[in-house]
Amino acid sequence: MAEESAESTVTTAATGESLLDKISDKLHGHDSSSDSDSEKPSLSSVKQKIFRLFGREKPLHSVLGGGKPADVLLWKNKKVSAGALGVATAVWLFFELLEYHLLTLVCHILILSITLLFLWSNAHTLLHKAPPRIPVFHLPEEPFLEIASALRIEINHGFAALRDIGTGKDVKKFLIAIVGLWILSIVGSWCIS
């Protein structure tokens, strides 16, 4: 029984090697009848011969993270990819060509939704429909107090650093502050048109 499984393993290994040899011969344009066994490439040389863009070792689908995002980027699901492209084009049209701003868009969406809720809640008696169920939100106080405390500590550290710079005790901090503010002013001039 052990001899039969050893023979089947040797047979499948020989078949797998001959299959890989045939594939590599087809890829390289060689005929397997003219090659001898000593000149046939091994499995590692076949793997090295596979051309991947930018020298990657993994397929592009796995480089992009696999799953649905990679499928969308590689257009494997054409409807979802076309929808994503359409939404991106509409966003580009809104913000670039029509010079629409994000804050304006958010405000208009909120105005529309509040108007619809107001009209629905006042018209429910005329339409004999149930009024809209708007949930009640209560934000806990503790996280905001912790954020305010952490922010207060950071602001105090900033004031202490400004005091050190202003008193002339640390030239290095002074130069870093000047360069940082200068770079920030340049970036700010790029953002505001």
UniProtKB/TrEMBL annotation:
Residues 69-193 form the Reticulon domain. The chain crosses the membrane at residues 101-120, 174-192. GO terms for biological process: response to bacterium. It comes from the Eukaryota. One of its GO terms (cellular component) is endoplasmic reticulum membrane. It is found in: Endoplasmic reticulum membrane. The keyword Membrane applies. InterPro entries: Reticulon, Reticulon-like. It is a multi-pass membrane protein. Keywords: Endoplasmic reticulum, Membrane, Transmembrane, Transmembrane helix. This is Reticulon-like protein. It comes from Lotus japonicus. The lineage of its organism: Eukaryota, Viridiplantae, Streptophyta, Embryophyta, Tracheophyta.
